[in-house]
Amino acid sequence: MIATVRTNQLRETAVTTTQQTTVETTNWKTALPMMAGTTFTLRELRAEDAPTLLAMLTTEEVSRFISPPPTTVEGFERFIKWTHRERMAGNYACFAIVPHGMTTAIGIFQVRSLDPTFATAEWGFAMGSQYWGSGIFAEGARMMLDFAFDVIGAQRLEARAAVANGRGNGALRKIGAVQEGLLRRSFQRNGQHHDQVLWGILADDWRLQREAQEPPATH
Q1: Does the structure show a pLDDT above 60 at 153?
Q2: What is the tally of structural domains in the chain?
């Protein structure tokens, strides 16, 4: 399950509920929080994640909808260092997806600023194919949206997914993103150009959706 992750760039404490992520950190630019899901944890990438990211994100079924990822452990180690620098600069946040019982990442969620204030941002995700359909995406996406809107302060999030990526487009639709347009020939892979769907979700819409999903208060 993938939305377009801009892996051309690769070459170079939280308490959660189902509805909302509460982040216990004063400044995400200093360090990303650790956010616990039902069967996994989202945390900052570490150097030791490089080997499993290489194994998970370079298979054909995963990489066909993203820009070419690094092809070596060293390449992913450089990417991880880059994510830390960009986070400290306030431009970008990248979370490792770590299933319970494991210590290293099987995928990533990321969000990057599209303007100097981070009011508009783009997010993406990539995960090893053996974890597709596990429920990790749906819950992790909600946690990521909570973080982007409530902690970073973004007002609008965009995502792109290749038209042929039915699983990724379906996942974005399911969490409440709105299909806003078609970006013709906007993604190139293996010498071929592909159309992408542009998805958008606004902070106000997300909060209304979140409130509607909360269980009624008991007295």
Answers
A1: yes
A2: 1
